[in-house]
């Protein structure tokens, strides 16, 4: 009887682990050059976890995911905004980049300057980083 209980628990655990490997975890963005998850409950304690490969599986293993980002070499802001029902709320121009803070149909959000922001796009000369809700930790 003890053996059957142990076998049952082992089979259930194996099935659960197999389900985790098969069940896709939807990402906010198509995977670009790299994919980063922000974990924590505020920007103060935000930890960055970058997936080397298989970002969907990495996300399944994380707790307290509060945002996601990826980097692209080619990116069309207007086309992307259409796909997520996005709207530019404000723009910040820096010496090396232009940052767009937007509202969009994405799962994470923060309040910046009295506006709910859930998409941040930073365009540099060679690359573009997109994040929801914003790029934590700089770029």
Question: Can you walk through the features of this model?
Answer:
The chain has 139 residues and is α+β, with helices and mostly antiparallel strands. 25% of the residues lie in helices and 34% in strands. The protein has helices spanning 2-22, 55-61, 77-83; strands at 35-39, 47-51, 65-72, 87-93, 98-103, 110-112, 115-117, 119-123, 128-132. The strands form 2 sheets. It has a 7-stranded antiparallel β-sheet with strand order 2-1-3-9-8-5-4. A two-stranded antiparallel sheet has the order 6-7. A hairpin with a 7-residue loop joins strand 1 (35-39) and strand 2. It is elongated and about 70 Å long.
